Amino acid sequence: MLKTRFPARLMPLLYFLLPMPLLAQRELVLKQIDLPHPYYYREMYLPQLTTGPSSAAWMPDSHSLVYSMAGSLWKQNLNSTTAEQLTAGPGYDYQPDVSPDGRWVLYSSYNKDAIELWVLDLNSRQSRQLTSNDAVNVEPRFSPDGKRIAFVSTSYKGHFHIFLADFANGELRNLQRATGETRSD
Q: Half-sphere exposure of 157 toward its Cβ, with a 13 Å CA cutoff?
């Protein structure tokens, strides 16, 4: 019987080539993102899949933080080791941003293959969905005066764009796209 051995110097090549067919057959996580290469940016905006804290945002008093952990938003006074759970919805809530007056928390919520923007009223502890376009809507930020928000979304042609909107009483108005049609393939 003839024994053949695979040359050891070619082993690193196997580590590179064997996964290639597996990657090509992988199902896309966020299909609503239209990009030139299926393997990048789609997973960039997925929430952290661990139970540890992430995405911290300061409260205006500089004594408390709002952060995401285990799929919910939490508020913690920095002089305490106890955190208060703020959300417990059906989605995975993350990327909080607190309004300058400390009343509102904007956040992204990943649920049913879309990432939508929500707002939490810290006075009433009620959350309300702000977007419902089945796109990827992430990185919401209040303007310094709290009257506008900016966020990144794929709602226009499946490409990432920055959107701006007026924010008043927990609602968005005058939504507009702030970025043009630049794209690198």
A: 11
**Residue 66 and residue 57 in contact, taking contact as beta carbons nearer than 8 Å:** yes
Which residues, in sequence order, are CB contacts of 29 under 8 Å at separation 6+? Answer: 42, 43, 46
DSSP state of 49: -
| Cα(25)–Cα(15) distance, integer angstroms | 17
Task: For residue 154, count other CB atoms closer than 10 A to its CB.
Answer: 24
State how far Cα 112 lies from the chain centre: 14
Is-contact 69 75, C-beta < 8 A?
no
Instruction: Look at the chain and report how many structural domains it folds into.
Output: 1
25 in a structural domain: no
Reported pTM: 0.73
What are the CA-CA distances from residue 130 to residues 91, 93, 142, 170 (Å)? 14, 14, 14, 8
Residue-wise pLDDT for 113-163, tens only, equals 889 999 999 999 999 999 998 888 999 999 999 999 999 988 888 788 899
Residues 107-125 pLDDT 10s? 999 998 889 999 999 999 9
Q: What is the rounded CA–CA span in Å between residue 46 and residue 125? A: 25
DSSP conformation class of 91? S
| CATH number of domain containing 122 | 2.120.10.30
